[in-house]
Hints:
Elements: E1 9-11, E2 14-16, E3 19-24, H1 31-43, E4 46-52, H2 62-72, E5 77-81, H3 92-105, E6 112-115, H4 120-127, E7 130-133, H5 145-150, H6 161-164, E8 169-174, H7 181-192, E9 195-197, H8 201-208, H9 217-235, E10 241-245, H10 248-259, H11 264-276, E11 279-283, H12 298-315, E12 320-322, H13 326-339
Parallel strand pairs: 3-4, 3-6, 4-5, 6-7, 8-10, 8-11, 9-10, 11-12
Antiparallel strand pairs: 1-2
Helix pairs in contact: 3-4, 9-10, 10-11
Amino acid sequence: MEEVVETTRTVYGQSCVTTGLVLGKFAPFHKGHQLLVDTARKLCDRLYVLIYDSRDVTDIPLYIRANWIRTLYPDVIVIEGWGAPSESGHDPDVMQLQEDYIRRVIPEPITYFFSSEWYGEHVSRALGATNVVVDEDRDEVPISGTRVRKNPHETKDFLDPYVYKDHVERVVLLGAESTGKSTLAKALAEHFLTAHVPEHGRDFWALHHDEGGRLTSEQLIELICEHEANEDEASLSAEQYLFVDTNAITTCYYDLFYHGSIHPELLKHARLATDRYQHWFVLDTDIPFEQDGTREDMAHREAMQKAILEHLKVLGVHYTLLTGSVEERIGQVKTALKMG
């Protein structure tokens, strides 16, 4: 990398702000990219990061990739390149197309252009910027986006935990009361050496229920928000899979059970759950019903199970029904995850 010393320059006796630009797909944003951004931040007063949509390369949405950078580097100005050209390469027309786009979306002149790629020379020339090449041969951080995409779990050491969490596959366990969800979620986490998220509803209910044993719709919304926050926190320490006991579909059921209708906000959480979880399992009612003093009865268990299955049907969710003992159910989960 060529020497660049000052951040704020002096031109004709006046202070001049230095600006920098980093661009890429960041699919995903790995530690090689972080080296690029860290280098740029040291050398610039103001840094822009332009991130391309690149749907042909990654399934991870642009807004998630942009949020990685905004979260890890709150001082950086992130520009989401929704309309960026998909063409790339050495063809002069393609290079011109890219240069025109970059000039159009960057709001001010750029002092330094940072990259570790061949295009640094022509982009910096088009911007009238100094070309700063960082770790071009990947000696300092020996990783590439292609390698991470092939197996993010084997290369997770090159990902910040905040980035890796979005590569963790969330596995949700649904089912009526007393179908073994809590036991299975913990057993699966132990088997796969990862984290699990216990049901939050029981503890929340114990603290907030009224004299009739009910929660308000507003409390149920608070409950599911806290439950999902617990998931997000647990995903930071998960390995490949995160096993989750219950989700918003169950919360919707209790709103219907308590009040005869489902609050729109809870329905929204249930709809969004179709993207939140990559694997869905429903535990069958083929194990003995255990009354712990807080549950209804077996008839209610069957009604609840029917309601959950109907909601999944409405949402178009594909799920696997788990039957038998804990060991048998673990085996069924393993088979389904391998197939998925």
